[in-house]
Design brief:
This protein is mainly beta and about 230 residues long. Helices cover about 5% and strands about 45% of the residues. Strands 1-2-3-4-5-15-16-17 form an eight-stranded antiparallel barrel. Strands 6, 7, 8, 11 and 14 form a five-stranded mixed β-sheet that branches.
Length: about 230
Amino acid sequence: MYRTLSQAWLSLALVAGFLLSAGANAGPADELAGHYYLEGGRSEVGSELLLRKDGTFEWALMYGAVDQGARGTWAKKDDRVVLTPTRAEEPVFRLFRDDDYNATEPVEPGRWIAMVGVPHVGPMGDVEVRFEARSGKTASAVSEENGAAIVEMPASETWTRAGLGRAGSAAPLQWFSIDAGRAQTRLVGFALTNVEALQRAPFSKLALRVGPDGLVVDDPDSGLRGTYAKH
């Protein structure tokens, strides 16, 4: 039903869009603010960093078919610039429309499947799905990389509701009623409506050492090498 996760939802175009929009918010002048490019690392890795004077940043990394992005706040602490990403916004879902399902077959009795993702684009993993039957019986599963959350449920049970939310999030689940016709197929799709929720930062903090030629990556856990030089 789905292909592998595509660049459509973490594409260079998406990340570069916010990099090019330097903010005009007033803030204290800082000699470190500016647009930086990673130099001295792997030739196949491209990365940009925008430090704004208002204390916010935008970061992007391009490596082969993988594009990543982050935004948040930055601060200078001793001889380091510390980047702290903001938490990704909570996903918002809707039920699949009929044409979102493509050619799908009903699931065999005894199993319920929730498919989560962006229709005709790709799946979304790491989504908790709470399944609820008419009898009150419940079960939970987390969607895999292919977007599928699967639970075993007796064939006598009828699927009536489903609640979705990011796995591990404290936010309340978003609940949906499952119509009788779709419940009979035991396969229900849930579409992500805010693609921005997919942009989860690849780091919780990133510290860059202030050097004579720019901001030096010296955190071995980051997977990056080189220096962010201002242009």
